[in-house]
Amino acid sequence: MRIDFLSVSNKTKRGDNRFFNRIWKKLHFGHLAKEKDQNAMMASYSSGLFPYSQHLRNGIYARRSRNEMTKFSWVEVESSAIPRMVDLQPMVWKIRFQRQVRVQQYCVDWPLSESQISATLYDRETKEYLEVRCHKDNNGLIIIESDEDLFSRDSLLLEGLPVSIKSESIFIDNPSIMWSGKNCQIFDVNAIPGTEYVDATLSISSSNPPTKENWQIDGLKLIPLSITKWKPNSSHSLYNGPIQVIEEWTGGSHVLTDTYISEDSVILKTAQGHPVFCKNVKQAGFWVRLGTSLNGDEMFNPLDEVFTNFSVKSLRDGHEEIPILKKRGDLRMVSLSRLPEGKELSINVRTSDLRIQYSACERLRNAPLHHHIPLMRLVARVDKKSKWPNSNPSKVKIDKWYTRVGGEGEGSEDQRNFVRKAISSPDFAFLEGPPGSGKTETIGELILQILAANSESKILLCGSTQASIDNVLSRFAEHDFIQALRVVNSKRWLQKPDQHYQMVHDHSIHRLVEPEQVQELKQSLGSYGDDIENEDLSSMVLNRSNLVAATIEGVANHPSIKDALNDEHTPPKALFDYLIIDEASKTTFTQFLVPAIFCRKWVLVGDVAQLPPFSNDMDISGILNRLEERNGDALRRACQIIAQVGDDRYLQSHPRILIEDGRVIEEILIELGELSKIDNRKKVKWGFLGNVSKNIPVEELIFINSIDLSSSDEDTIGTARLRLTGCDVIVIERGALDDNLFSLVIPTTHLHPSMLGKKPFNGNESLNSKSQMPPSRYMRQIKVTRMEEEMKSNKNSGSVFNSRRGLNRSDTDTWGDRIAWRLKRIYELKNSKNVKLREKYFNEVLALIPRQSVKCSECKGEGIWMYWDKENECLACRGNGQLPRWARSVEEVRNFTLPSILESLQYGYAGPGAGSELSLAPRFPNTLSNGFSNELKSTRFQSIPYQHRMHPSISAFPRNNFYFGGSDESKLQDAMATLSRRDSFSLIQGDNRRLWFDVKSNWVFGANYDEVMKVKSLLIDTISWFKEGGIEESSLAILTPFNNQSEALREMMDEVLKNHGGKGMRGTRGILREGTRRLILFCSTVDKFQGQESDIVILSLRTVGRIGNFDSPNRVNVALTRARECLLIVGDRKTYLQSSRGPQRVDEMLRSLCIETPLGESNSGHWRVVV
Fold it and tell me: Is the pLDDT of residue 1015 over 90?
């Protein structure tokens, strides 16, 4: 019997679909008993988890594509062209000493001639005569020179007339300083304001470092308080006589130079005369010059990635990675540890993190078990019949508390409530608290309560950083209940012992790491352990441990978990009863899945007001650039051009010329047609010139067919030229015109004077490439190199770039790049008061997204969604049947990449901020996108508002700006019962512990060395205070929002530590010991220091004339809440009080911080508010 499926009614089709779906469901999810759970998991499988898997797969492909695009050729550099390596050691020192003072006596009522040089005074009381010398100084005073203290005598006569002698103290401003009998050349002497100390910069002729002995000043003995090696606070050129050897030297020791130095060593000098000892150094490695083939129209230059991305530290030649020893961006040269094999090199792009997340997502989709049902519910549609179960925390009875949570301190009851909720919840529990509120203490109490109730329970503790999990282990791993295991990369741990501190910060828990426990177990087994593989031993260690700790990504380092992730056929079993994630506000949903699929219950701890998950702009951009639509690349390019034209303020005074492919022009025309329906703003006059007729959707557009043009037809040429003259933008199809037709048709109003009479087409190079600017401020030197040949041939060509005669189209600025960083900025500013800036970025994203709509795939364009026999409005398109597909795709990338799992489950993708209404398209309606309901959160969520870390003067600003909330009580309150018990902190005077040290600076690029020098003086103050005081242990953290500033600060700290008897910085940490006492030092970026704290925090803002990304409230919150006792902010206040980039760049939050933070000063090594 033949069935004509085309004749079957829609109702019959739906019935057949339901029948086959039920059969498939029973086959795939038959091991689940409850029908409603099967429905939820089916929905999750079909439309819930699939977008996340697709997103991760696109991310992997995008990184691989980026790797394929970063291939280039190489040639070995000839020996004569290899840069020379020199070791530079300044022979200049800074010494600090007490200001030298001499007493000067003078007469105020001199009765004799001012030119007299000697006189005899008579003292009526002592009846003695006193011979003195005298002279007149520049101020008109008569100076008296005598060994006697005349100012203390009240009965002096001069030739019978009474005279009065007074005195004053004179500081020696230009002293003569000697060391070991040799005169020192003095460059400057600066008095330290508010103190009696002086800093002198001087050079000595000896190559040996000076000691504190054998110093003289003006013939008197001098004992310096400190001697430090001088380092320039700005770049200097170094000269060997008249020959410039180093163009820009900022104080580094090993420096490359192109100038040949015949001697083994020589003394170079700066323009100011500072001597620098220069010695030739034999280089390791092999220099190669990199090259790439560019046609002039590419959007990505791999060489830019090598020389501008500081994280690129190795290249791959097809066999293995080759470490980069040195880079010379201006010469396109790198020094490699070995010569490459083959003809090509590439940048190695790591995809392991995304592949692990993808595997976890696929394991959940393809082989779910019963304990995965709550995870599947997270992504099931909210209109499905799958409800979250309730719980009753009040039924949890706890007889004994093991930490301070059981006390009566402020916030303790909130902590106990959370422990009860976490134990009673059948799935999720959330703990939110501000910095210093005792979240780590609460985690420890929860672990002990779980193990006390059931010693067989197994807990997996994860965090986004090493510090977050090590803090818990260092405090609770020694408890009798706990058998702890710290998971690390075993291979790296065993092969690189010098990197142990990078994998586990706390040395006290090194014995808990997996390789150490495996070795210990193997030794305890004796000869029986010789036949057991290390992987089996690792499994034995895992099975005996009840608390396993690892980073989110590092949990896959354990062999048992790695095998489970890679096994496509075996469902991931529940290895742990609980998953506890600290700093969950920095973990995305897909990152969360990696450990989550191995657990039965999930506890998330964090603070959504602090930093969100780290997101890589290049990952987001790569995923966006993979959006596959009809003519996707051409449409992306078309939208990019339209957005650039819309942003061009100089369009009418400087008309533009563009040369594009025919497909791009077609998409521009379609998009302009869509825009004409919704955009009533002032229209841009577009002109198009191509080979074939195009469909012109808007009457105002001008299109000229180049086939109809002939250089001999003057009337046609004149008409075309006249029509194009009034256009703001002329878009020419590539290959449509030759040089002759171009010069005849294109109006001279659209050409820069330097282009007149020139051939616009040079080989494959488009006109655009002659009118583009490099994409990054880091490429100034590269720009000069690229344009050098053209600059030589045409002295006016520089103005072509500056006037932007053509649209600014950079090599690396793709459509995805333009959207990616704006999406990230919108998310960073979601809680910001700078509404104008946030909306500006949002509107720019909207301008870049195609307006073309497609039929909604959920409702098939009908606007309704059928669930069984009921009709509901389609939540995907909100009932209109049409879906802005590109906007929906961009919104998905945004939602999958930026929000944390903690934020999503509390507030949904939109978050709690004022910017939550800025949505590009309707969000898929599930628990992740909407968050848990208030009813469900009441039994799962707990907030602890009391902080025990910060001095009240430090917590005041975060409380008023980041934790204001909507209720009467702030989400950040001071636990005064704890804070009031602290001892006084003698380093800072007064009750205000938050001070601003204003550093006037003109730095506009890179690290700000003016701030570095100020931080250095504050660091020396701290060290002096520590050495003089009796405190057993203290800590100082120097933080900055920017990596380049952190590198400069770390280098400075390393030098200061060594000068004060320490061993320097080891990574981001250093220790200065004074007997049994110690001062712990940290140097890090703000982002990397989240979850940690310090007694003193010095925050260097790296002011370079702009705010940068430091206007993110989350980042500022983290920066301001790390200090316990004292917070010092170093930066140029003027930058944050006003901006040269328009009113939208004046951030009210940072402006308030400037106004509310008093200026500070150093007074005799102690800090105080400026009086």
Answer: yes
Pairing mode, if any, of strands 576-582 and 459-463? parallel
Length of the chain: 1171
Quickly list DSSP for 1070-1110: EEEEETTEEEEEEEEETGGGTT--EEEEEEE---SSS-TTT
Average pLDDT over the chain, rounded to whole? 79
* Spatial distance between the Cα atoms of 390 and 935, rounded to a whole number of angstroms: 9
- In a 13 Å sphere around the CA of 534, the CA atoms on its Cβ side amount to 12
| Separation CA 316–CA 425 (nearest Å) | 49
| pLDDT tens sequence across 1131-1147 | 988 888 875 455 445 67
Average pLDDT over residues 879-889: 71
Dihedral (Cα; 602, 608, 610, 614), 10-degree rounding: 70
Query: Which is nearest to 911 in space by CA: 712, 1114, 761, 1098?
Result: 1114
Task: Provide the pLDDT for residue 36.
Answer: 54
Residue 952 CA to residue 960 CA, distance in Å, equals 12
Select from 582, 366, 319 the least CA-distant residue to 460: 582
Q: What is the DSSP letter of 466?
A: H
Tokens in use for 1154? 């400037």
Quick: pLDDT tens for 291-335: 876 543 343 456 766 776 656 788 888 778 888 888 877 678 888
pLDDT for position 771: 34
Query: Which residues, other chains included, contact 448 with Cβ-Cβ below 8 Å and sequence gap of 6+?
Result: 402, 403, 476, 479, 481, 482
Roughly how many angstroms between the first and final C-alpha of the chain, as a whole number? 100
Report whether pLDDT(1054) > 70: yes
CA pair distance 62, 56, nearest whole angstrom: 10
**pLDDT tens digits, 533-550:** 888 888 899 999 999 999
- Mean pLDDT score, 184-196: 77
Cα 81 to Cα 9, 339, 496, 564, 737: the distances in Å are 80, 17, 36, 53, 43
Tokens of 410: 């402020």
* Closest CA relative to residue 307, chosen from 779, 772, 773: 779
Any idea which of 560-564, 837-841, 1005-1009 has the lowest mean pLDDT? 1005-1009
Higher per-residue pLDDT: 273 or 1171? 273
Instruction: Kindly tell me if the per-residue pLDDT of 21 is higher than 70.
Output: no
Instruction: Give the residue from 827, 875, 873, 819 showing the smallest Cα distance to 850.
Output: 819
Predicted local distance difference test score (pLDDT) of residue 955: 92
CA pair distance 550, 483, nearest whole angstrom: 14
> And the tokens for 647?
């942003």
**Which residue blocks in 882-987 are alpha helix, DSSP H?**
885-897, 901-907, 927-930, 934-937, 952-962, 976-979
pTM of the model: 0.72
The amino acid at 140: G
Q: Tokens 């006003």 appear where?
A: 1138
Supply 156's token pair.
């002096």
Largest CA distance in the chain: 148
Within 10 A of 311 (CB to CB), how many other CB atoms are there?
A: 6
- Quickly list DSSP for 714-725: HHHHHHHHHHHH
Token pair in block for residue 118: 């000697």
* Torsion of Cα atoms, 474 then 475 then 480 then 486, to 10°: -30
